[in-house]
Amino acid sequence: MAAPAEVPPPLQGIPTAKEKKYDRQLRLWGINGQVALESTHIVLINNGPGVTGVETLKNLVLPNVGEFTIIDSAIVSEADLGVNFFLEDASLGKFRAVEAARLLEELNPGVKGHAVTELLETLITQEKALADYNLIIVAAPIDPAILAKIQAHSQQYRIPTFYLHSVGFFSSFSVYLPPTFPIVETHPDPTSTTDLRLLKPWPALSAFAKEKLKGLEEGTMAAHDKAHIPWLCLLLHYLEKWKQAHDGNVPEAFKEKTAFRDTVRAGDYNEENFDEACAAVLKSLNPPTPPSDVRDILSAPETQNLDKSSAPFWLIANAISKFYQEHGQLPLPGAVPDMKAVSADYIILQNIYKTKARQDSAEVLATVRELEKQLGRPQNFVQDAEVENFCKGAAHIHLVRGRSIQIVEAGKAIQFGDRAKAIAKELTNDESLIGLHIAFLAWDEFVATHHTSSQVAGGQGLKVPGSGTDDFEADAEKMTGIAHKIVDNLIKEAETFVEDPEYSQIKEKIAKFCTEILRAGGGELHNIASLTGGLLAQEVIKVITRQYVPIDNTCLFDGVASRTRVLRI
Amino acid sequence: MAAEVAAQPVNGTATGSRARWKHMDTLLSRPGAYTDEDDFAPGSVPIGNIEQSRILVIGAGGLGCEILKNLALSGFKHIDVIDMDTIDFLFREKDVGKAKASVAAEFVMKRCPGCVITPYAGKIQDKDEDYYMQFNLVICGLDSIEARRWINATLVGMVDMENPDSLKPLIDGGTEGFKGQSRVIFPTMTSCIECQLDMHAPRAAVPLCTLATIPRQPQHCIEWAHIIKWEEERKDLVLDTDDPEHITWLYQKALGRAKEFKIEGVTYSMTQGVVKNIIPAIASTNAIVAASCCNEAFKIVTSAASFLGTPGENNYMLYTGDASIYTYTFEHQKKDDCPVCGNLPKDLFVNPESTLGELVEGLAERPEAQLKKPNLRTEEKTLYYSSPASLEESTRPNLKRKISEMLADGEEFAVSDPAFEINFRFIARYA
Ligand SMILES: [Zn+2]
């Protein structure tokens, strides 16, 4: 007879069809990230060939962004059909925005797409033209006056905004982020984040280690027990011994650490847990000093001078900075890596860490509640889960201090402001792609100062360099001249001096970037558009979900050398 | 240099109306800032090369679909695509369940008239050298290391020094979450996929005794249900990781085990992830890597700009997007002891006191070997054969013997694996 059926444990968390569909991305940004993505309405202000922007939208429609709108007054031409996947032969002669929105929607019925075909320069004069959108993407070429209007809107309402170029083998995009853009969930590499506090164990941890080591030195421990001492306890034990022999000091210098490792090794030459302990010595015996950018956040004026309008992030940062002042370390994250041990010991160890992490987090939470009172904010303005999350990742929080996008103004020298010195240094860095950024600035300046007779998207009658049948060489010369002037102004603004041959090499490099851009005549290559659309969509997702670390603030792609470079402009 | 190593030009000229290719043709009709006259003749030659090249795409999943679209919109007219799977998540919902290769081909062809994409729903191993010989270039967008190694070995094996047409550049892309890579291989001339195998080390397997006696992590409980419990209780049923009933069963077993050991964190989603070895994936990373591969293909075929894979130059682009955006583009060096493209045996450090069984087990995990069903022999004797069953039985006793009884220090031995057409040559080095 069959044994009575076991009562199955209650089933929880069987995924819905939707969770199944988005399973592979949910593993990256979780349900909170997905909710943020699905409540976003993105607008693409499309100009020029307009392929990169549409490819960007594709990468956002697939993961189920809420809504998107394409603003584009262009009519589909034959040249569009050869480079834009979201148009078909029947689209010829119709509005590009309408056609692309329709074909993008087809990818994912859950996403709503809209098209606006009004001329940008009339649309932008309407007061609420951009009111519906919480993220803006603008494609070059565009009349700089219109771009400035868009950016003014972004700055007023703190709307993240991207401005992109994609011409021939090259592309770039810059992002405007609000002046403070903090991120808690940066998803650092788990191997780099283990924080076990072996140099400053608390009583519960020391007591457990002592118990697990009982009989080791005396040789009375059973072989099985010895082989299953968690390496963490082994290190605590040998650290105690080391301290006794070294006036209470722990091994600090590299040489001391390797000597310390030898003493651990001498404990046993074969057992796997001793192997693990030795391998962990170098990375586990560092004082838990927070990285400098975390200390910067803790001492930032926004953290220290809270007021009634401070966001939850700053209240928690203030509470954590108080915690740090008092304890000399951040709240314990509480995670324990897997290690050879019997199940029960490992679970106890996990609980020791979890308990301490909860205590630390509770202490921070109490401070936060106190701050809420002092600031006259409602109780639970900051949620418990937010505090807990922050405490877990405190050593890896990140702050982007957003900057505005550099906009060219006809007849005015381009300014680099407080970044002039740093950017001028990039000029002599072989790995840098600053030359490409300058070439795109020159391209923008050319567009701002040249006009065609007919109307094109992005502003009335913009002329893109090299777009005619016989203007390649003449325009290349003009654009290179503009770029060289930008370089000279930058060097002057940085109050520095670059000597030959370096100076000539810089100019030569920039002339090549200009010529190669000109070669495309303003045209897009689908591969470069698609690659750039991938990079851009990924940054959009990071910004929307407030997870991972976004670029700060300009990314350049060189499709000839196959490499990217990020610059803070 | 570029012209020499590029896929053999087909020397065609452009035909028909080129109005839709205005952007591309403008660029291809002007000299580039980084080209010289010997390598690149603007105009009809590069355009004709694009029109007449025949490209093979392996894989029609997230990466493969992007690759097909990119090639079609780069003006390529003759594309073949191989994939053995049916659709789970692709361009459109209504296509779910059909063969990936056919749906992808049909969809892209409909959008890009004039481009012919020939699908094959099957395995790359079904095809022979004559088949692969038809192509100018092969692009791989797969998540299987085994398939990559197979096509790599095949293309390297096809190279005939007397026949320049036999050299087929191989472009390979791969992604995982916010990370990815694209690389270009000129078989026998530059570092191959086998040379680079240790860049993709397999995840260390959890020891069986941990699963059986001392689980500590939720994953250990799931693996226990998957590897041990299923065999015990449902051995007559083939595990189908796409069957929700099967996953639910494993999940319940794992949950019960976790409760017994007071382990937290077993979820349905984790069960699925562990059992199916799900690699997190997003559209944007696929787009980046696929486009990078196709950009290299475009440059190789047209010589319109320098490309990855020129001997002595960069051949590999690593991409990371989780913290800002970072690419590392470098030259991976060809290895003389590469079992595929090198001619020297590789040193393998072994403990003479350990058993042959341990060596055999280790071959699956050593990053430079990754052989799961190895057959080992020296020049004189057979050490161990995983298959066929009769040989396995007769050589099995050797597994218990010490290395020192079976292999001398410095002795060469060969390892083969039915999954690959590669013979690995190793030299046993006592350590
Ligand atoms: Zn090789």
UniProtKB/TrEMBL annotation, chain A:
Tell me which SUPFAM superfamilies the record gives.
Activating enzymes of the ubiquitin-like proteins (SSF69572)
A GO BP entry is: protein neddylation
- THIF-type NAD/FAD binding fold domain location is 22-555
- What InterPro entries does the annotation carry? APP-BP1 (IPR030667), ThiF/MoeB/HesA (IPR045886), ThiF_NAD_FAD-bd (IPR000594), Ubiquitin-activating_enz (IPR035985)
| Keyword annotations of the record | Ubl conjugation pathway
Which Pfam families does this UniProt record tie to the protein?
ThiF (PF00899)
Q: Which pathway?
A: Protein modification; protein neddylation
Q: In the UniProt record, does the keyword Flavoprotein occur?
A: no
- List where this protein forms a coiled coil: none
Extract the GO molecular function terms from the UniProt entry.
Answer: NEDD8 activating enzyme activity
Query: Under the cellular component aspect of Gene Ontology, which terms does the record hold?
Result: cytoplasm
Its function? Regulatory subunit of the dimeric UBA3-ULA1 E1 enzyme.
Family of the protein in this entry: Belongs to the ubiquitin-activating E1 family. ULA1 subfamily.
Q: Which protein, by its recorded name, is this?
A: NEDD8-activating enzyme E1 regulatory subunit
Automatic annotation (TrEMBL), chain B:
Give the molecular function GO annotations.
Answer: ATP binding; NEDD8 activating enzyme activity
Source organism's superkingdom? Answer: Eukaryota
Q: Which InterPro entries has this protein been placed in?
A: E2-binding (IPR014929), ThiF/MoeB/HesA (IPR045886), ThiF_NAD_FAD-bd (IPR000594), Ub_act_enz_dom_a_sf (IPR023318), Uba3_N (IPR030468), Ubiquitin-activating_enz (IPR035985)
Which pathway? Protein modification; protein neddylation
The record's function comment reads: Catalytic subunit of the dimeric E1 enzyme, which activates NEDD8.
Indicate the family of this protein.
Answer: Belongs to the ubiquitin-activating E1 family. UBA3 subfamily.
What protein name is recorded for this chain?
NEDD8-activating enzyme E1 catalytic subunit
Q: Which gene encodes it?
A: uba3
